Amino acid sequence: MRAKKMVRKSYFVEPTMVRKAMKVLGANSEAEAIRISVENMVEMTEFWKFMDKTSKSVKKGSFH
């Protein structure tokens, strides 16, 4: 597998949120917690956009 390209960024974040993210995600560093959080947010946003778009084409009661 090819490594992802990383670039250095600088942001202001709430330290308590970063610590919570580290704990919940099992991350070993703040940087890892932030990377995982951003990736998860993108995946979930894409998923819910897909669900919203396709929900209109699925008939009610077609899933049990």
List the helices and strands and how they pair.
Blueprint: H1 15-25, H2 30-55
Helix pairs in contact: 1-2
Instruction: Sketch the topology as an H/E string, one letter per element.
Output: HH
Largest sheet: none
Total strand segments: 0
What is the overall silhouette?
elongated
Radius of gyration: 17 Å
Low-confidence stretches: none
How much helix is in the residues? 55-70%
**Class from helix and strand fractions:** mainly alpha
- The average pLDDT score comes to 89
Task: Describe the structure in your own words.
The chain has 64 residues and is mainly alpha-helical. It has helices spanning 15-25, 30-55. The radius of gyration is 17 Å and the shape is elongated. The model has no long low-confidence stretch (mean pLDDT 89).
List its salient traits.
64 residues, mainly alpha, 2 helices
